[in-house]
Amino acid sequence: MTDDRLIVALDVPNAHAGLELAGRIGDAVGFYKIGLGMLTGGGLALANELKQEHGKRIFLDMKLFDISATIEAAVRGLAQFDLDFLTVHGDPHVVRAAKQGAAGTGLKILGVTILTSLDRGDLDDGMMRPGDLREMVIERAARAFEAGADGVIASPQEAAPIRALPEAAGRLIVTPGVRPAGAALGDQKRVATPARAIADGADHIVIGRPIWQADDPAAAARAVLNDLP
Ligand SMILES: O=C(O)c1cc(=O)[nH]c(=O)n1[C@@H]1O[C@H](COP(=O)(O)O)[C@@H](O)[C@H]1O
Question: What sections of the sequence does the record tag as coiled-coil (predicted)?
Fold first, then answer.
């Protein structure tokens, strides 16, 4: 049995590279994220192959944002694929429409709160309203849950207060922005270690570069898993 608390982001350019990487990782990992970087590189075909041929769980990360009718139609189409998780922006109208589109399927909708690569200065650049970023993440999580989200995406730095929300009971907290001690942060700003994220209430951690860029991705994944509480 793999420990599906670890989701590895397959942020490589195409399905061929993704399949090769998943092959090198082998049994160490049972849950993969396929995202926008592979949209034109056969991402959905790879999702299908990893699920059907290799028994992996699949998180399709599309971070959808649009008017309700468009979101509902897009999610209805994606829900025909055998996927486990799908991201949309955590705005209530988007989450509600996505849940409509996924109705009757097992697809879980995760609402993105505020990207883990952003800090208050980035929100100012984007003309987002003033206020404490952490409080905004917690409030967006609560609103996404109220709108019916099966889970939220937040940084590990907000996992504990989100877990404490009454609205979070029975819902998922998924945290990217996770870095083993000493790993390069890259563009991530709100980070914590895998062990801290899980101890603070994350159900799943998403890790990309520290695993797929490692000389031995399977060993890097195992090291993360060995470190989890
Ligand atoms: O939705 C996501 O998965 C996501 C949300 C977020 O706030 N931050 C974030 O980094 N991600 C994704 O998580 C992965 C993190 O990759 P690394 O920074 O390489 O570990 C990338 O595929 C991002 O697209």
Answer: none
**Host domain of residue 220:** 6-227
Ligand 1: atom nearest CA of 9 is 22
Specify whether the CB–CB gap between 150 and 172 falls below 8 A. yes
Dist CA 145 CA 127 (whole Å)? 25
Residues 6+ apart with CB under 8 A from 169: none
Q: Is 61 a catalytic residue?
A: yes
CATH number at residue 181: 3.20.20.70
Match 């990893």 to its residue by tokens.
50
**Choice among 3, 4, 51, 63 that is catalytic:** 63
Task: Look at residue 132 and tell me whether its pLDDT is greater than 90.
Answer: yes
Nearest atom in ligand 1 to the alpha carbon of residue 117 is 8
With pLDDT > 70 as the criterion, what percentage of the chain qualifies? 100
- Catalytic residue chosen out of the listed positions 3, 66, 91, 203: 66
Q: Is the dihedral of CA 116, 47, 25, 226 positive or negative?
A: positive
Question: In the chain, how many domains are there?
Answer: 1
The token pair that represents 56 in the structure block: 């992996």
Residue 36 lies in a domain: yes
Q: What is the mean pLDDT of residues 53-72?
A: 98
What pLDDT is stored for residue 204 in this prediction?
98
**66: annotated active-site residue:** yes
Give the closest residue (by CA) to ligand 1 atom 23: 176
**Whole-number CA gyration radius for the chain:** 17
Residue 109 lies in a domain: yes
Closest ligand 1 atom number to CA of residue 59: 3
In a domain, 1, yes or no: no
